[in-house]
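Hey team,

Filing this mostly as a record. A colleague (T.K.) asked me to run one chain through the structure pipeline before their review meeting, and I want the input and output archived in the tracker in case anyone asks later how it was produced. No errors, nothing strange. Just documentation.

Input sequence:
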Amino acid sequence: MKSNSLRLLVALAGFALAATAASAAPVLIGNKNVAAEKIDGATVKAVFLGKKVAWDGAGRVVLAVLKTGPVADEFLQGSVAMNASAFNNHWRRLAMTGGGTAPKAFDSAEDLRKFVAETPGAIGFVDAAAADTSVATLTPAS
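Output structure:
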């Protein structure tokens, strides 16, 4: 009986972990004035590292990031090749040397999405479930 209970507990934990991982798929979102519906990986990296500071014809880039969590971790590892600590240190260094202003950081995807929707030139990332029609979903170009 105990072994069946243990198996059930392990199975439920596995399902919960899989559900958490599935819900953590990040998507890139932008203000609707950001013309690029497709954006290549090199541009995404340049934008999030502060190397590209203006959109072609759409004004300055305004970065928005999630402070912590699996969505932030997955996006930063996959798109910028940094963990959250290295990313934050990169921006601290830029700010201290006058090379840029750190991205606006949000606790929730909803607040980030609202900021991106209301801020011309803004770009950020959220869980796919948090994206809606108030923002443009930017598709990575191959």
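Quick notes for T.K.: The first helix runs from residue 2 to 23. The helical segments are 2-23, 41-48, 70-80, 84-96, 109-118.
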